[in-house]
């Protein structure tokens, strides 16, 4: 047996043994994992209210001592201490209610590379235990996936075996995010919702075969009856990694400059950005030049965000949405085949809630899926806990002849669920599971699986599998989403 196989087998055995021997108290029960999750509507209703009620809140989450060198920038190489701030990290939240007495919904985005569901539930707890908030039927918190934000997951610390998460900062982030959500509830006003979208051209790039992604830029705009400034909700699919791996400055990346452009053009208005299906990897057009440090990354980041903001501002053809909001969520357990991630959890680099499975030495990660509709099936939002490969949304899979495994994909994809007139994915929602990959193109390194990247039969690199929970994740999430939607519609 060669050295690689010995290392692989040793790590697998260590993971399985530790999982088997750890006391029950180390794992999270279903009850505790889902204690602060509100599952929304048991059955969707299309009875409309008199109007929408909406509120916006935000809070800066950048710590005052960010330049001290004790915080690590997440998303590129590990051990990259931040030494300054290009722009602030924010938590931005929107409260939406249709006034049908069925409760309001929170949609919140945090400028971070990713947030575990355990941390999401801590934020939910703070909100639910605040005496000023009532009647919520769903709280959803996403990461914008900024690769220049402070490490919120633990994977980018000084050493591989040492978490880059700073608990003091995470406590601060949770408190500020809860404050933004509570502020959104307190700032609610009556008004109307409108949606518009356009198909963008020459903005995105798919770093992995097949070349497929959601080109739509979607805008949802709340217009208060009192003529005060609007609130904008934006969805677009692109990795927020445009500052490049040489950056030392904390930043929200291009979403910051997208929002600045909306605010500049619409004085007093507020905006929140939700990322889309970005697995694959979906990024900006010039990402290869950024990887090679061949362009001015800061200038490109600002211009890319500004360009998207200008497109948002240019949308004139709006459709009013009837005052109806439906939402449902369901807990899911993902059997984690990636033993490296489980080892990272066992040594507390990561902090996901995990539990044992019926299979000896195998752990499952607690997560969730959700589906939200606005209007009479006008808008459908698939709430996905990670970086979804777009073909799992749009069905544009590689054929048997093209795929890394030589097999065809066999999924009911998200776009075939729900039946909304216009729909999109909100990624990294309520969790960050990493890449969610179709099984017909899931290829791991046979000698060092989940440690070294694999190569398929065509010689193509399969890096993303090393940052995934396993081959079955996509099927589990899609089948859980379909089951949830069929149950409530």
Describe this structure in words.
The chain has 489 residues and is an alpha+beta fold. It has one domain (1-489). Helices cover 24% and strands 25% of the residues. It has ten helices and 22 strands. The strands form six sheets. Strands 1, 3, 4, 5, 6, 8, 9, 11 and 13 form a nine-stranded mixed beta sheet that branches. The mean pLDDT is 95.
Question: How is this fold's topology laid out?
Answer:
Blueprint: H1 3-21, H2 30-33, E1 52-60, E2 84-85, E3 90-97, E4 104-110, H3 117-128, E5 136-143, H4 167-186, E6 189-199, E7 204-206, E8 216-224, E9 231-236, E10 249-250, H5 254-265, E11 270-275, E12 282-284, H6 287-291, H7 297-314, E13 319-321, E14 325-335, H8 339-346, E15 354-356, E16 363-374, E17 379-383, E18 387-388, H9 391-394, E19 422-426, E20 435-436, E21 454-455, E22 461-462, H10 473-488
Parallel strand pairs: 2-10, 4-5, 9-11, 17-19, 18-20
Antiparallel strand pairs: 1-3, 1-6, 3-4, 6-8, 6-13, 7-12, 8-9, 14-16, 15-16, 16-17, 21-22
Keywords:
alpha+beta; 9-stranded mixed beta sheet; 25% strand; 489 residues; 22 strands; 24% helix; 5-stranded mixed beta sheet; 10 helices
CA-based gyration radius: 21 Å
Strand content: 15-25%
Overall number of domains: 1
Tally of helical runs: 10
Report how far apart the termini are: 54 Å
Number of strands: 22
The largest pleated sheet is described as: 9 strands, mixed
- Structural class by helix and strand composition: alpha+beta
Regions with little confidence, pLDDT below 50 for 5+ residues = none
Overall pLDDT score: 95
Shape: globular
Estimated helix fraction: 10-25%
